[in-house]
Design a protein that fits this description.
By secondary structure, the chain is mostly helical. It contains 5 helices and no strands.
Amino acid sequence: MTLKQIRFLGRKLVAFLALFDDCFGRADARALLSIYVKGQLSNIHRRTAEAIALAAGRAPRTLQRFLESIKWDEQRLRDRCQQLVAAEHAHPEAIGCKVRSYGK
């Protein structure tokens, strides 16, 4: 990939993550989501919360706290994902699978 293509992908990722802004009540949670997703897509050897946070210049506990205790609207996020999949993969011969949620 060229540098220009990589920069374009970065802008696309920002736009994609913005689709989920209303699933998170606070701007700091949205920023941490971006850090976490970028870290998962990066070439960091170990993609743990600690390694991702350190690579992003953040305190590890900040990202760990995001993953364990910051609340988001799980139903809205799930519904948005389903809408995106339906919009992007709609086809007369397509099939869908419903995942059962156990324990709820």
